[in-house]
Structure formats: C-alpha cells, structure tokens
C-alpha cells in the first residue's frame, strides 16, 4: 500500500509535471495476480486495484490501516472494468460483468477476487475499489451495469453528451460515506464534467477505462483559477482533493468510474465554475 499525504492549493503552483503526476495520478494500479492499493489522506480514502489472471486473489489486511481485517472499520464500492469476474464475500459469490458495481459493507471478513474467463475477448476481470472509513454497517449489494439511477447529461453540440449511472448514493445502494457510479461518453462526445466544479466537502477520484491504449484523457485539476493538467491513460486513476476541479477531454471515447467520500452524499452538492472564468 502506497501512502499519499494530503496537499493544499498553495502547493500546486510550485509543482512540475513529475510531482503533479506523483501526487495526483495513479498509473499502475493493476498488477497481475496481486492487489495494489493507494491510501490518500484526503478523506482517508483507499484506492484498490485487483487483476486476477491465473489465480484467485484475496484482499489482504494492510498494516497501514491498523485493522485486523480490511473491512473491520471500512466499506468499499467495487466496479469491474475488465472481463466478467467474481467477488466472493464471506463465502457468497457475486458475479460482476463489465461495468457492474458491488458495495461491500463494514464487517466483511474474507473477500476474494477471481476472473471467469481470463483468456476471453474482454480478458481477465479488473476490479477497482474505492474504500472509506465506515461507522455503521450496510449490506453487501450488487448492481448490474446500467441498472443504477440513470441520468442523461450534456449536449452533443458541446461535445459532452454522456450517460451517468449512479450506483452507490443516498437514494440507491446505501453506504456510510462512499458514493460511486460510472459515466459513459456518447459517440462523438469527449468532454466529461463540464462545467467543471469543486465540492469542498468531499474528495473525488476518477478511474478512466474503455479508452484505447493509444488514446489519452487530458484531465484538468487544481483550483479553477490556477488549473493544471494530467495526461491519463486507460485504467489509470486521478485523485481530486476537495478544493480541486476534476474534468477532462479525451482523444477517443471512454468511460470513467467516479467515486467520492466526505461530508455528505448529495450528488448535486457542488460548486460549478463558469468555463470563461477558468484560468
């Protein structure tokens, strides 16, 4: 588990590209037959990548979280961004197709990840989890791809027509802190999350997927009046502190998992910023 300590807006103007990427971009989250994790001290969120190729992979207990088992004091949302796979939670097997989401509540002890057909057209399963501290327990719940609360956003004229699926949220799958969903851009649309926004009460992380290997997303971050950018590839994640915008445009079509944790779970609790005033 890699640890990344919290930063403030005052740090950003002095950062070069390498430091921006080191602090806010997670490039190698998926390691074959292993579990890789990043603990960001922004809202104590943990990003986890699991790529079971030749064998099932169990979620370990990381010493950095000071618990007897991973979910002793935590919860997580898990989205499969690869081929069909399974997540077994305390002996109960949940099958996740591409884009499906599983919520795992506080108290789950044994969690094992596996791929159904690693050599198939979609390849092995790739499980992306976002975990936050939890102070109560909610039941483990599976939501199939496209079966969440669907919101159609944007316009083809502004190249940001997109379908947003809310999976874990205040009116859907219950959680203590985690809010999670998947957004897919429509053909011909490349911009996500415009107008850009912040929410000073929650951090947010994006994981980009379904992006061709030779394509990239130019991801905007930083304060609205002091923006920077990250060039992001397929299956890479970005960390947005509560003070940072999070928006981007791709060179090809893509989807992304968005997940938040913090003060509240209201999806519309955001402070949008007019694009003409951004710098």
TrEMBL record:
Family: Belongs to the KduI family.
Cofactor remark: Binds 1 zinc ion per subunit.
Catalytic activity: 5-dehydro-4-deoxy-D-glucuronate = 3-deoxy-D-glycero-2,5-hexodiulosonate
Keyword Calcium: no
Record-level Gene Ontology MF annotations: 4-deoxy-L-threo-5-hexosulose-uronate ketol-isomerase activity
PANTHER family given in the database record: 4-DEOXY-L-THREO-5-HEXOSULOSE-URONATE KETOL-ISOMERASE (PTHR38461)
Pfam families according to UniProt: KduI (PF04962)
Keywords, sorted A to Z: Isomerase, Metal-binding, Zinc
Protein name: 4-deoxy-L-threo-5-hexosulose-uronate ketol-isomerase
Origin: domain of life: Bacteria
HAMAP family in UniProt: KduI (MF_00687)
Biological or metabolic pathway of the protein: Glycan metabolism; pectin degradation; 2-dehydro-3-deoxy-D-gluconate from pectin: step 4/5
Binding site for Zn(2+): 197, 199, 204, 246
Organism placement in taxonomy: Bacteria, Bacillati, Actinomycetota, Actinomycetes, Micrococcales
Role played: Catalyzes the isomerization of 5-dehydro-4-deoxy-D-glucuronate to 3-deoxy-D-glycero-2,5-hexodiulosonate.
Enzyme Commission number(s): 5.3.1.17
Cofactor: Zn(2+)
């Amino acid at each position: 588990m890699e640890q990344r300590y919290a930063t403030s807006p005052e740090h950003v103007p002095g950062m070069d590209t390498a430091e921006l990427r080191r602090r806010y971009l997670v490039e190698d989250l998926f390691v074959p037959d292993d579990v890789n994790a990043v603990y960001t001290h922004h809202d104590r969120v943990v990003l986890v990548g699991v790529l079971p190729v030749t064998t099932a992979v169990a979620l370990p207990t990381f010493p950095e979280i000071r618990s007897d088992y991973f979910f002793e004091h935590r919860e997580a949302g898990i989205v499969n961004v690869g081929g069909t796979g399974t997540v077994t939670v305390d002996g109960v097997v949940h099958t996740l197709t591409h884009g499906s989401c599983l919520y795992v509540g506080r108290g789950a002890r044994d969690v094992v990840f596996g791929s159904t057909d690693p050599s198939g057209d979609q390849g092995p399963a790739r499980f992306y989890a976002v975990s936050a501290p939890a102070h109560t327990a909610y039941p483990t719940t599976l939501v199939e791809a496209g079966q969440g609360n669907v919101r159609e956003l944007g316009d083809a004229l502004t190249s940001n027509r997109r379908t947003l699926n809310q999976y874990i949220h205040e009116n859907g799958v219950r959680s203590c802190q985690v809010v999670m969903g998947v957004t897919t851009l429509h053909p011909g649309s490349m911009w996500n999350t415009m107008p850009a926004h912040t929410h000073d009460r929650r951090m947010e992380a994006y994981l980009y997927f379904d992006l061709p290997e030779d394509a990239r997303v130019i991801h905007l971050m930083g304060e609205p009046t002091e923006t920077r950018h990250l060039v992001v590839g397929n299956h890479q994640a970005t960390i947005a502190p509560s003070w940072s915008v999070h928006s981007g445009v791709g060179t090809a079509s893509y989807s992304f998992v968005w997940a938040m944790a913090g003060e509240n779970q209201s999806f519309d609790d955001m402070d949008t910023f007019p694009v003409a005033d951004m710098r």
